[in-house]
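Re: the 119-residue chain
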Amino acid sequence: MCRWGGDTLPARVEKEWRCHEDVAAGRLSLRQDWRWLLETTTREVCDDRVDEDHDTDDGTYKTQGQTLRFLDDDGRENIDRGWGIGTDIDLDDLRTGTLASDGTLTVKLADGTPLVFRR
């Protein structure tokens, strides 16, 4: 993945009083059985303490031409509920995607944050 919300990686996804969390790496896989898998590595920094976390999220997707519609693991559409405070970004709330002729996939999260994946 090259860009996350307009920023090159690492990109800030959460900021609190003395801590912040950055996405350090991410990979989106689209399988032939209409399932998606998002693997992310995040790094949380609180003062001089640093914790790295690896997460996987999955769901299903549908296509219409070059447009993809992402659903969560139970087949429901991801909706931004607005429950976060500050700059929190829900990394697994994939909503729609557009595939360019060069293989670049631009995905929008439910809150509108764009993610750009390259092969």
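The chain has one domain: 3-117.
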